[in-house]
Amino acid sequence: MPPRTVMSTAAATAAVLALGVTLLAAAPQSGAAAAEPAPVTDYCQGQCDDILPPGQNGNATLVEILGNKAFGTHPAHSDDQIDRYDGLVAGHTALTDQKLTDFFNDASFGVPKDRVESVVSPRDDVTITRDKATGVPHIKGTTRYGTEFGAGYAAGQDRLWLMDLFRHIGRGQLTSFAGGALANQGLEQQFWPQAPYTEADLEAQVAYIRTHEGPRGEQAMADAQAYVDGINAYRDKSKNGRYFPGEYVLTGKIDAITNVGGIEPFELTDLISIASVVGGQFGGGGGGEVQAALSLLSAQQKYGVAEGTKVWESFRQRNDPEAVLTVHDGTAFPYAGKPDKARGTALPDAGSVTAEPLVFDRTGSAGTDRKVPVKAPANLRKAQGIYDDGVIPEGSLPGSGSGAQKRGMSNALLVSGKHTASGNPIAVFGPQTGYFAPQLMMLQELQGPGISARGVSFAGVGMYVQMGRGQDYAWSATSAGQDITDTYAVELCEPDGSAPTKDSTHYRYRGTCTAMETLERTNSWKPTVADSTAEGSYRMQVRRTHYGVVTHRATVGGKPVAYTSLRSTYGHEADSIIGFQMFNDPDLVKDAASFQRAASNIDYAFNWFYADSRTAAYYNSGMNPVRAAGVDPALPVKAERAYEWKDFDPAANTAAYTSFAEHPNSSGQDYYVSWNNKQAEGYSAAGFGLGAVHRGDLLDDRVAKLVAEGGVTRASLTRVMAEAGVTDLRGEQLLPELLKVIRSRPVADPELNGVVQQLESWRAAGSQRRENGSGSHAYAHADAVRVMDAWWPRLVEAEFRPGLGDDLYRELTAALATDESPAASHGASGAHSGSAFQYGWWGFVDKDLRKVLGQPVEGPLARTYCGGGDLGGCRDALLASLKEAAAQPATQVYPGDDTCKAGDQWCADAIVHRALGGISQKTIHWQNRPTYQQVVEFPAHR
Question: Please, are residues 489 and 556 in contact by the beta-carbon 8 Å criterion?
Answer without folding.
Answer: yes
